[in-house]
C-alpha cells in the first residue's frame, strides 16, 4: 500500500486551489486532494498499487523551482508549502487533451461493450475532453477478443494501456503472467508464449480495468449494469470473509465484485469466490427445465425415500419424516444416538439455531462443523487470536498450515504483500513448498508426523525429527537456528515469549492426524505465551459454526459445556449431559453401530469431503437414518432418507464469522429456488415437529438472542453491524476501544463497484445494504462500560472463553512410528479448484480442476525406474489409486504429495487415508 | 570560413586503418591518460574534468563534472555508458565505437576511477554490429593489458566493464529507459522524480550515465589537463565536439570542430567539412541538433556552434546531428518522415506520446498525400500543444520523458516557417515537390 501510510502520522500542509490543506506525509497529491474533497480524474491510479503515472489524466499544476509545471498528481507526494492547482485553464486543457487522445484509438463501441454504463472512460468523457473528436483517421484494429485465460478475454482495441491489470498480476498476485508487448500505439497486453494467464486472481484484473478491455467469460454479454441490482455482503466460499458487492438480475446472480474492506480483502477476490455464484444459480437446472432435480442442479424441493427411491414430498411430510427418524433413533439409543455433521456453510444464525435444536432440544452433543480437516474446537476457540492486519504487521509470522494460496487465497495475497513490503517476516514449517515459500525468510521442511517435533526443536530443544528418513533429515540445522533467531529477533535477550509473533495455524495435510498439529500448537502456546494465532480453517463459516456451538463440548459464544451449563440450561431448558463425539467419533460410532444411529448432514457432503472416505461410506451405509440438508445433490444425498432443500449463499440474510473471528453482514439477494428454506427455519420447524419451540422466527430475532446469550458475541448488536463505521465487520469478543467510530469510505471511487458510484466519480456512496440504512457518525454501544465477552455479574452469564482450555483438552497425541525405506508418507494437499459442490456446479470453474498427480522426490521415482509423468500406483492399508507420478525437487525423500479432493484416477486420494492413523503410509509402485 | 587550429581530441586516430587495435592505440599514446589518472587521487581526476567544463555530449548537455558530483554516496554505485545512438541522422558515437574503441574503454576506466565505481556497463545500440565486435575485442585486449579488471596497472583499483547490446528500441537512449533495459525489463522510461540516476539508478543504486563521446574525451583531458580543454571553445561550451553532418551537403560526415569558434555556416560550407550545399542550391532550412530539435532557417547559419548560443536562439545542439535541407526539399514531407519516426519509436507508456504521435503522423501523412484540410494546421498545433503545453522553448511536457516534446518540434517548425507550403499541399491536393 504505497499510498496509504500507516501511523504514526506526520503531516504536511500544502496549498490546494488556494486553500491550506493538511495531508499525511508521503501521501500522493491525488489522494490528499480527494480526502480534502477535490476529485482529480484518473485512470491508471489505483490506491492499492504502486503509481506509474502512465495515463496522464491526473495532471495538475505544481509549484516548483522552475515555476508551476504540469505533474501527475498520482505520482507526486505532497510537501510542505507546495502549491497545487487542479482547475486552471492549463490543467483543464491538459486533461481535456489527454481524454481526447485516449479516445483516438478507442473503438467507442459502448453500445455493445459490457463496461458501458459503469465505464470510467465513458464517465470521464462526459466530464472532460471535447464533445466531438477531431480524429478523422482510421483507428487501429486488432482481432477481438483474444483469450488471456479460460476466464479472461481481452479486447485490445478498447485498452487504454493503464497497466492496472499488469501491475495487479505482478505486484499483488505475484504472478507476472501478463505484460505489455509492442511499441507506441501498438502496445498491447499479452501473455507469454504457451503460458496463459492462469491465476486464481485473474478476475480482479477485470474488475479494475477502467474500460471494457478485459471481460470475464461468466459475465460477458449477460447483463447491462443499469439492469443490475446490488447489495453488499460477505463471500463465504472460504473463511477469509471477503466483502463483496453481489449483483443480480431476474433472481439470478450476475456478478460479484470485491469491495475494499481494509482489514480483510482490500478490494481483491479470488476467482473461486468471484465465480462460484454459478453454482448458486444452478445453471444446469436452467439448461434442463424438465429435470428440476437433475444430479447437476439445485435441490429445490424436499425428498423422502420411499421404496428405496427419493421422491418429492411436501415440507410437512418431509419434516415429519425427519422428526420421526430422529425421534426413533433417540428412543432406541438415547440423545447421543443423534448426531450432526456440518454447519460451516450456514450463517451464524443458522449455526446457532441448529446448535440450540441439537443440544437444547434433542440433547445430543455429538455435533461437529468440521469434517476431520480442521482442528479441535478448544484450540480454535481458546488460543489467543490474531487478526489478518496483526499478522501482516507481526514481528514474525510462523506458518504452520497448508498452502494458503490454495486454501485461503486472499489471506495469501495479504501475507505475500506484507512479506514483499517487509512489514513482517515469514517463517514456514511444512512438508512441501507453498506459494509463500519464495517469500519466507526460512522454510523448514518436515515430513508428515514430525510437525510437532520440528516445532519443539524450533522452540529450543530436541531433534526436529523423531525418526529421520534413512536418506537423512529434512530439516537443516542452520535453518533451524536462523528461524529461532528470527522468532526472538527484536526482543531483549532471554525474553523469547513470542510477543509480536503470529502463528497461522491450519492443517498442512489432511493425511496427518489433527493431533499432530494440535500438539505443535499447544507447544507453541506454552513456550510463546505472547504469541497470537490466526486459525487458517478453510470452510466458509466454520469459525462461526464453532463459535456458535456446532462442536462437541462447547456451547454458543465460546463457552465450554460445563462452564455454560447453568446459563444455557436456564435459557434453553436443557443442555447435553456430557460431551459428545467429534466427526471422527461420530463416523466411527455409526460404522461400528456403537451408539450413534441417525445423522443430520447440514450442508456437508460427508461422503465426499471426509478425508477417510472408506470410513465415511461405511458410516453412511450403517446409519439407521440420514437427513441431508443441502443445496445440491452430493454423494451423501445417495444415502439420505430425507433430503431438505436449503437456501445457500446470497439466498439468506444474517451474519458470518471469518478466520479472525470477525462478524460481518450477509445480505440476501435472491429468493431461494423452488421450496428451499434458510437452514435456521428448517431447524425451527423441525423443533416444532419434535415438540419443541425454539421461539425464533427471523434472523434478526436470532441475532438478538445470540447477542444476549452467547458471551463472545455480547455487544455485537445488529445496530453495530449495520453502522457505516463497522461495515467491514467486528471482531468478537467486541473490544469497544478497537471498533472504528467513524464511517469508513471507499478508497478507490473508480474501482468501487456500483453504477451509482461510477456515475458520481467524486464522492460515491456505500453500496446498498440489506439492513436498515446505516447511521453515520460515532456508534453508540449501549452503556459503554464493558467490552463484549466479559462475564456479567449477577446474571450468571459466563465469560467468553470460560471452560475452553486449549492446553488441557483435545485429542491425545497419536504415536508416529519410524518409517521404513520402502514406504512414503502421504501429504494430502488441498487445491482451490476441487471436486466440491461450489466448483463442480460452476460451469466456468469446473474445467479448471486439475487431475491429481503423485509428486515425489526424483530419487523416489527413479527407484521405481519410472519417468516423471508415467502412471504409478499408490497403495495404503485402506486402498489403492492410480495416477501420474511427478518428479518434484521440492518434495523431501520419503514423502509423496497428492492433491486431495480432486480426481485421482478412478477414485480420489481420500480412498487412501486412514483417519485414525497419525500419518498415512503408502507404497508407490510402477504401473506397467 | 573559419577552420580553427584546435587539436583533434577524440578523432586523432581515425585516419589509421588499424585505429581500433591495441597496438595502434598504444603506439599513439593510448592508456597514458589512465596511467596518469591512477597516479592522481580520484578527487583530483574529477576536479580536472570539472575544470574542463566538459558538457555531456549525449543531448542534454549537462556538465559531466557536476553530474559526477551528484552521485549519492553508497557502497554500491554504477557507471553506465550510453551508446544507444539511434536517432535519424545521428552517427557521431558510431564513429567512436568503431574507430577508436580503446579510447572509449580508457575513458570509462578513468571515469570509474574518479567515481570509485567498480562496475561499469557500456550499453551500445544493438545495430552497431561492427562497433559491438570492436568494443568487445578492445575490452578483451584491455583486460589482457591490465587496463581493465583487477588491480589496474598495479594501482590497486579494480573495475569490471560489461558491454550490453541494445535490443533495437530508440527509447532506450533515454537514460532511465536504458537502465530499465539493462536490468532486463521493458524499455519504459522511469517516471520522475527521482530526476537523476545519480540518486536512484541502476538496480536502485546511485548511477552515473554518460555518453560515449563524453567518455572518449577523458583520456585527453587527463593527459593535457582540464584547463587546456577549457581553453578551447568559449563560455560554457568548452573543447571540441563531434557533429554528424548530413542532408544536402557535398561532404556529409562526422567532423570534430572547436565549439563556439565555429559556426553552422563554417561546418556546412568549409571545404574540409560540408563543402557547400549540393548542386549549388540554397539552404532552405537545417536541423541544428537532431530530429528532436526545432529547425533553423538560413538566416541562422552564422550562429556559433555553442550550447547556450543555440539554446537562446530557440533550439539545441542536442545529439550533434546537423541536417541540411536545400531548396528542393518538401518541408511537409520532411516533417512527416520525422513524425513517423517518433510514432514508430514511442514506447507507448504514456498517453500523449503514444496516441499523439500516431495522430500527428496520420494528419501529416494525409496532408502530404493530398487529403489535407486547412484546419488541419490548427489541429496539428493544438495536438502538439497537448503534448508540449505552450509550444515554447525549452519545452514543457505532459509526458513522462522528453520523447514527447520531441515529436512536435519538426511539425511546429515546419508550420511556423513554411505555412504556405502546407497550404499549397492542401490547395493542390498533393505534394508540389512530387
Description:
Among the domains of chain A are: 11-87, Ubiquitin-like (UB roll) (Roll); 379-535, Dimethylsulfoxide Reductase, domain 2; 824-926, Barwin-like endoglucanases (Beta Barrel). In chain A, strand 3 (59-62) and strand 4 form a beta hairpin. Helix content of chain A is 25%, strand content 18%. In chain A, helix 9 crosses helix 23 (679-689), helix 10 packs parallel to helix 23 (679-689) and helix 15 runs parallel beside helix 17. Chain A has 928 residues and is of the alpha/beta class. A seven-stranded mixed sheet of chain A has the order 15-14-27-26-25-16-17, with helices on both faces. In chain A, strands 31-35-32-34-33-38 form a six-stranded mixed barrel. Chain A has a five-stranded mixed sheet with strand order 2-1-5-3-4, with helices on both faces. Chain A has 28 helices and 38 strands. The longest helix of chain A is centred in the middle third of the chain and has 19 residues, at 315-333. The mean pLDDT of chain B is 96. Chain B is globular and about 75 Å long. Chain B is an alpha/beta fold and 434 residues long. The two termini of chain B are 35 Å apart. In chain B, helix 2 (32-39) packs across helix 10, helix 5 (92-99) packs across helix 7 (129-145) and helix 16 runs antiparallel to helix 17. Chains A and B meet through strand 4 and helix 2 of A and helix 14, helix 15 and helix 16 of B.
Amino acid at each position: 500500500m504505497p499510498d496509504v501510510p500507516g501511523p504514526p502520522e506526520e503531516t504536511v500542509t500544502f496549498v490546494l486551489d488556494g486553500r491550506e490543506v493538511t495531508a499525511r506525509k508521503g501521501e500522493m497529491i491525488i489522494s490528499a486532494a480527494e480526502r480534502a474533497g477535490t476529485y482529480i480524474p484518473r485512470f491508471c491510479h489505483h490506491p492499492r498499487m504502486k503509481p506509474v503515472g502512465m495515463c496522464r489524466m491526473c495532471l495538475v499544476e505544481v509549484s516548483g523551482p522552475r515555476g508551476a509545471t504540469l505533474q501527475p498528481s498520482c505520482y507526486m507526494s505532497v510537501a510542505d508549502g507546495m502549491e497545487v492547482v487542479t482547475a486552471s485553464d492549463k490543467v483543464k486543457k491538459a486533461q481535456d487533451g489527454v481524454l481526447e487522445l485516449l479516445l483516438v484509438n478507442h473503438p467507442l463501441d459502448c453500445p455493445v461493450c459490457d463496461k458501458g454504463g459503469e465505464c470510467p472512460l465513458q464517465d470521464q468523457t462526459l466530464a472532460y475532453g471535447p464533445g466531438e473528436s477531431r480524429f478523422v483517421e482510421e483507428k487501429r484494429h486488432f482481432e477481438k477478443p483474444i483469450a488471456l485465460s479460460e476466464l479472461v478475454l481481452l479486447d485490445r482495441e478498447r485498452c487504454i494501456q493503464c497497466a492496472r491489470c499488469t501491475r495487479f498480476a505482478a505486484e499483488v498476485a505475484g504472478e507476472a503472467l501478463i505484460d505489455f508487448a509492442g511499441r507506441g500505439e501498438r502496445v498491447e497486453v499479452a501473455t507469454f508464449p504457451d503460458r496463459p494467464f492462469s491465476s486464481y486472481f485473474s478476475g480482479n484484473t477485470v474488475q479494475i480495468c477502467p474500460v471494457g478491455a478485459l471481460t470475464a467469460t461468466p459475465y460477458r454479454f449477460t447483463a447491462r449494469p443499469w439492469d443490475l441490482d446490488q447489495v453488499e455482503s460477505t463471500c463465504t466460499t472460504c473463511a477469509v470473509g471477503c466483502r463483496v458487492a453481489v449483483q443480480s438480475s431476474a433472481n439470478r446472480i450476475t456478478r460479484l465484485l470485491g469491495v475494499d474492506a481494509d482489514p480483510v480483502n482490500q478490494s481483491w477476490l479470488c476467482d473461486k469466490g468471484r465465480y462460484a455464484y454459478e453454482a448458486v444459480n444452478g445453471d444446469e437446472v436452467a439448461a434442463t427445465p424438465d429435470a428440476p432435480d437433475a444430479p447437476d442442479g439445485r435441490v429445490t424441493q424436499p425428498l423422502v425415500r420411499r421404496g428405496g427411491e427419493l421422491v418429492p414430498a411436501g415440507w410437512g411430510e418431509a419434516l415429519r419424516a425427519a422428526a420421526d427418524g430422529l425421534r426413533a433413533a433417540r428412543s432406541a439409543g438415547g440423545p447421543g444416538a443423534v448426531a450432526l455433521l456440518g454447519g460451516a456453510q450456514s450463517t451464524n444464525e443458522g449455526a446457532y439455531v441448529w446448535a440450540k435444536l441439537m443440544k437444547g432440544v434433542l440433547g445430543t452433543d455429538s455435533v461437529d462443523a468440521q469434517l476431520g480437516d480442521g482442528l479441535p474446537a478448544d484450540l480454535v476457540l481458546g488460543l489467543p487470536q490474531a487478526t489478518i492486519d496483526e499478522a501482516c504487521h507481526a514481528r514474525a509470522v510462523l506458518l504452520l498450515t497448508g498452502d494458503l494460496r490454495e486454501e485461503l487465497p486472499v489471506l495469501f495475497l495479504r501475507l505475500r504483500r506484507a512479506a514483499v513490503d517487509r512489514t513482517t517476516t515469514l517463517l514456514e514449517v511444512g512438508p512441501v513448498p507453498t506459494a509463500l515459500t519464495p517469500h519466507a525468510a526460512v522454510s523448514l521442511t518436515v515430513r508428515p508426523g514430525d510437525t510437532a517435533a520440528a516445532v519443539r526443536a524450533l522452540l529450543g530443544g530436541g531433534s526436529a525429527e523423531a525418526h529421520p528418513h534413512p536418506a537423512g533429515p529434512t530439516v537443516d540445522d542452520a535453518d533451524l537456528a536462523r528461524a529461532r533467531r528470527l522468532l526472538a529477533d527484536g526482543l531483549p535477550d532471554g525474553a523469547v515469549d513470542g510477543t509480536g509473533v503470529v502463528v497461522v495455524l491450519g492443517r498442512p495435510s489432511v493425511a496427518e492426524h489433527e493431533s499432530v498439529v494440535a500438539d505443535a500448537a499447544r507447544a507453541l502456546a506454552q513456550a510463546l505465551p505472547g504469541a497470537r494465532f490466526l486459525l487458517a480453517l478453510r470452510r466458509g463459516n466454520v469459525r462461526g459454526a464453532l463459535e456458535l456451538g456446532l462442536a462437541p463440548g462447547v456451547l454458543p459464544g465460546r463457552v465450554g459445556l460445563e462452564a455454560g451449563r447453568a446459563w444455557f440450561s436456564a435459557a434453553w431448558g436443557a443442555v447435553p449431559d456430557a460431551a459428545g463425539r467429534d466427526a471422527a467419533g461420530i463416523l466411527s460410532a455409526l460404522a461400528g453401530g456403537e451408539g450413534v444411529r441417525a445423522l443430520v448432514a447440514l450442508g456437508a457432503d460427508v461422503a465426499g469431503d471426509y478425508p477417510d472416505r472408506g470410513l465415511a461410506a461405511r458410516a453412511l451405509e450403517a446409519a439407521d437414518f440420514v437427513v441431508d440438508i443441502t443445496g445440491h445433490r452430493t454423494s451423501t444425498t445417495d444415502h439420505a432418507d430425507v433430503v431438505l432443500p436449503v437456501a445457500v449463499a446470497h439466498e439468506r440474510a444474517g451474519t458470518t464469522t471469518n478466520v479472525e473471528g470477525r462478524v460481518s453482514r450477509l445480505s440476501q439477494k435472491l429468493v431461494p429456488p423452488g421450496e428451499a428454506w434458510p437452514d435456521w427455519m428448517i431447524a425451527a420447524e423441525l423443533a416444532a415437529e419434535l415438540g419443541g419451540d425454539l421461539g425464533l422466527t427471523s434472523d434478526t430475532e436470532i441475532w438478538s438472542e445470540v447477542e444476549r446469550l452467547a458471551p463472545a458475541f455480547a455487544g455485537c448488536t445488529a445496530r453495530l453491524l449495520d453502522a457505516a463505521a463497522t461495515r467491514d465487520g467486528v471482531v468478537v469478543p467486541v473490544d469497544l476501544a478497537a471498533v472504528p467510530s467513524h464511517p469508513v469510505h471507499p478508497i478507490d471511487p473508480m474501482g468501487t463497484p456500483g453504477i451509482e458510484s461510477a456515475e458520481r466519480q467524486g464522492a460515491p456512496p456505500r453500496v446498498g445494504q440489506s439492513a436498515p440504512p446505516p447511521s453515520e457518525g460515532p456508534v453508540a454501544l449501549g452503556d459503554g462500560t464493558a467490552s463484549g465477552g466479559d462475564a456479567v455479574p449477577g446474571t450468571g452469564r459466563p465469560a467468553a472463553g470460560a471452560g475452553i482450555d486449549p492446553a488441557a483438552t483435545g485429542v491425545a497425541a497419536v504415536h508416529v512410528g519410524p518409517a521404513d525405506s520402502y514406504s512414503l508418507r502421504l501429504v494430502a494437499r488441498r487445491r482451490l479448484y476441487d471436486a466440491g459442490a461450489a466448483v463442480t456446479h460452476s460451469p466456468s470453474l469446473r474445467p479448471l480442476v486439475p487431475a491429481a498427480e503423485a509428486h515425489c522426490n526424483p530419487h523416489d521415482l527413479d527407484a521405481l525406474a519410472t519417468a516423471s509423468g508415467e502412471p504409478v500406483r499408490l497403495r495404503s492399508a485402506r486402498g489403492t489409486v492410480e495416477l501420474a507420478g511427478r518428479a518434484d525437487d521440492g518434495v523431501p525423500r520419503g514423502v509423496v504429495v497428492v492433491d486431495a479432493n480432486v480426481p485421482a484416477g478412478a477414485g480420489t486420494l481420500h480412498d487412501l487415508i486412514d483417519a485414525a492413523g497419525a500419518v498415512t503410509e503408502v507404497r508407490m509402485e510402477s504401473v506397467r | 570560413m573559419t577552420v580553427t587550429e584546435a587539436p583533434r581530441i577524440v578523432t586523432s586516430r581515425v585516419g589509421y586503418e588499424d585505429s581500433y587495435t591495441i597496438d595502434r592505440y598504444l603506439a599513439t599514446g593510448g592508456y597514458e591518460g589512465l596511467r596518469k589518472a591512477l597516479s592522481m587521487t580520484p578527487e583530483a581526476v574529477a576536479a580536472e574534468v570539472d575544470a574542463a567544463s566538459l558538457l555531456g555530449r549525449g543531448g542534454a548537455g549537462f556538465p559531466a563534472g557536476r553530474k559526477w558530483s551528484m552521485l549519492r554516496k553508497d557502497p554500491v554505485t554504477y557507471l553506465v555508458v550510453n551508446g544507444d545512438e539511434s536517432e535519424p541522422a545521428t552517427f557521431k558515437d558510431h564513429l567512436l565505437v568503431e574507430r577508436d574503441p580503446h579510447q572509449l574503454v580508457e575513458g570509462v576506466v578513468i571515469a570509474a576511477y574518479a567515481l570509485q565505481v567498480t562496475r561499469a556497463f557500456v550499453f551500445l545500440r544493438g545495430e552497431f554490429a561492427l562497433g559491438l565486435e570492436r568494443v568487445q575485442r578492445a575490452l578483451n585486449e584491455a583486460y589482457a593489458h591490465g587496463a581493465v579488471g583487477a588491480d589496474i596497472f598495479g594501482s590497486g583499483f579494480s573495475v569490471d566493464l560489461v558491454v550490453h547490446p541494445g535490443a533495437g528500441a530508440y527509447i532506450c537512449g533515454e537514460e532511465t529507459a536504458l537502465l530499465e533495459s539493462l536490468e532486463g525489463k521493458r524499455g519504459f522510461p522511469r517516471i520522475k522524480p527521482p530526476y537523476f540516476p545519480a540518486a536512484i539508478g541502476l538496480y536502485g543504486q546511485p548511477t552515473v550515465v554518460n555518453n560515449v563521446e563524453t567518455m572518449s574525451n577523458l583520456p585527453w583531458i587527463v593527459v593535457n589537463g582540464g584547463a587546456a580543454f577549457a581553453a578551447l571553445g568559449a563560455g560554457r561550451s568548452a573543447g571540441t565536439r563531434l557533429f554528424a553532418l548530413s542532408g544536402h551537403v557535398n561532404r556529409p560526415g562526422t567532423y570534430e570542430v572547436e565549439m563556439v569558434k565555429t559556426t553552422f555556416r563554417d561546418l556546412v560550407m568549409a571545404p574540409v567539412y560540408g563543402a557547400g550545399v549540393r548542386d549549388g542550391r540554397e539552404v532552405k532550412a537545417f536541423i541544428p541538433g537532431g530530429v528532436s530539435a526545432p529547425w533553423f532557417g538560413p538566416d541562422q547559419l552564422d550562429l556559433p556552434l555553442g550550447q547556450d548560443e543555440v539554446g537562446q536562439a530557440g533550439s539545441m545542439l542536442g545529439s550533434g546531428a546537423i541536417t541540411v535541407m536545400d531548396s528542393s526539399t518538401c518541408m511537409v514531407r520532411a516533417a512527416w518522415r520525422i513524425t513517423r519516426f517518433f510514432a514508430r519509436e514511442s514506447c507507448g507508456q504514456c498517453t500523449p506520446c503514444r496516441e499523439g504521435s500516431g495522430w500527428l503522423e496520420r494528419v501529416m501523412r494525409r496532408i502530404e498525400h493530398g487529403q489535407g484540410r486547412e484546419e488541419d494546421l490548427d489541429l496539428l498545433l493544438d495536438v502538439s500543444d497537448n503534448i508540449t503545453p505552450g509550444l515554447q522553448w525549452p519545452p514543457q511536457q505532459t509526458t513522462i520523458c522528453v520523447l514527447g516534446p520531441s515529436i512536435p518540434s519538426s511539425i511546429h517548425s515546419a508550420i511556423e516557417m513554411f505555412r504556405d507550403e502546407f497550404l499549397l499541399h492542401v490547395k493542390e491536393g498533393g505534394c508540389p515537390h512530387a
